[in-house]
Amino acid sequence: MKNLKIAAFGILCAASIIALKPQTTQAAETEEQQIIRIADGQTASQVKRQLRNNDIEIVNADGESLGNSSIVATGDRVIIYNNGNVVSDSEVVVPGDVDGDGVIDVLDIEAVQKDILGIDKPLEGVYRQAGLLSDSEDLSVLDMESVQKDILGLEYINPKAHDISGTYKELTDISGEYDSDNLLMGIDVSKWQGEIDWESVAADGISFAMIKCGGGDDGLYEDRYFRYNIENAVANGLRVGVYFYSGATDVETAREEAEYCLSIIADYDIKYPVAYDWELNDDEDPDVITEVCETFCDIIADNGYAPMIYTNRNRWYNTMNAGELTSKYLAWMAAWFYDYYYTSTRWEIGNDIASFKYPFQMWQYGVTDTVAGIDGYVDMDIIIIRE
Questions:
Q1: Pick the residue with more confidence: 53 or 71?
Q2: ∠ Cα 215 220 313 (to 5°)
Q3: Are the CB atoms for 125 and 63 separated by under 8 Å?
Q4: Cα–Cα distance measured from residue 129 to residue 109, given in angstroms and rounded to the nearest whole number
Q5: Disulfide engineering: 9 pairs with which of 138, 141, 232, 273, CB 3.0-4.6 Å?
Q6: By the 8 A CB rule, do 318 and 283 touch?
Q7: Are 301 and 42 in contact (CB under 8 A)?
Q8: φ/ψ (deg, to 5) at 45
Q9: Which residue has the higher pLDDT, 237 or 118?
Q10: Is the pLDDT of residue 181 over 80?
Q11: Which CATH superfamily is domain 166-384 in?
């Protein structure tokens, strides 16, 4: 990214929703079975930590062990051992997670409609509108609050469940053919862009912004325009994510960077992923850098965000184990086309997309001076979401 230090693809914080006591993992034992009720969006690592027992295995319905970064869902089982012997085998219940993916979101509305209300065809607008559960004869679009309160009986409501536009669950691989209706144009910014007129940016066809929160390449620091950028981007209706510019070549430094990054973004509602921007020397050990990226991303995931890794295509191929990382985390790949490399030309629908050996969800395609509200050049990005 040269002078434009960019990265990251923002995310929806995995909201902790649980009947009666959010953020808590509870075990309830009956004569027939033991049940553990957990908040939605919890990883296996978080559940183990909350139960305060190191000798735990979490398995899915097929008996396969879940990795620490896997989301725990209804139907999974928590097995606690003592000296190799099973002392408890509990079924997981995620209240409100109707579709069984471990996360409460708008997709659960569809499951409610089909499985509880008996509606075969999802109601028009259910993914983008908030409606009511009313007493009228005409059934309107269901909003998640009504579903959670009136159908699922939850007392605590996820305020973000109305709208999952802009969450990492929607991102899809853009390396193949794309659907232009779901393509979004974006930028990524830092102090190098100075004071941005975000109202003009939003009016110029830019739907999302990846905002630098800080870095670790010159000690730990916060980007001096981070708070201005994220507050004004959100205020003008853009979907925002953040990226952290890394200086880590070892696991301990990556851990410090992740913890510092979390402290910077804690006050903000990040709807797009938290990206790790790794752009150091090409002569590092790929296995070590892979572990560095995993360390940062796992800590980010354990705190309820969707982690993403940013680097250019050459570094993806040569400085880290890209196949392993892209199988576990979201990928942001930079490959600048000549037509968009410090030019006044913006990528348009119908133009080619860069090739890449692995799945990727976001493409940084160039640097242009085409965005209103920004004085000079800015990194340009596209994503494709699925409805």
A1: 71
A2: 25
A3: no
A4: 12
A5: 273
A6: no
A7: no
A8: -65, -40
A9: 237
A10: no
A11: Glycosidases (3.20.20.80)
